[in-house]
Give the backbone structure.
Amino acid sequence: MKILIVEDDRDLREIIAQSLEKERYVVEVAPDYRTAARKLAGYEYDCILLDIMLPDGNGLKLLEEKRKREKKCNVIILSAKDSIEDKVCGLDLGADDYLPKPFHLAELHARLKSVMRRKLRDGEAAVTCGNIAVYPDTFRVEVGGRPVELGRKEYDILLFFMYRVGRLVEKQVLAEAVWGDHIDQADNFDFVYAQMKNLRKRLKEAGATAEIKTVYGFGYKMTEP
């Protein structure tokens, strides 16, 4: 899962980023409005942790731009401004939750998991496709009720497609989601091919009924049986 932290406080930004990376999220950061706007225009994220008071703009305007572009990602507002007006405005603009500063990292992690579970999994513990079940809260994968061991990137790729069954996904979009924004500067995508090959092999050996197919000239698509 890929998270964008929009926060001007360097120490807080780094603390949040480090804690999320330990939880196996792919984390990107933006210290100001301008950087955040550029990233949101060029990349996709599963969730945005958004500060309202930025040195060069108001975070709520980023929510307005997100809604105009119909960007589908979760948003949790993190702000020292704990007024009812800010909360209502943020929620009206599409934010999923509001966490006032200061906060405990444990609560942030819990809120993040809750939002993801509610928006992406309809409240269910597992994401399923065919006889494949992935439990994001515990990083567990089962095929036909039996556990399957996957490498870190293999798991990340599988979870990415489990949330996008039936959708065509470009190789670059997949690479950015699993390896981070900077990967768009790579000379080729051989690392994607290698991980995809390993993942397909493990799923096939486990007897998975769903599969990730290559769409030549474009990318990949996960299909149900």
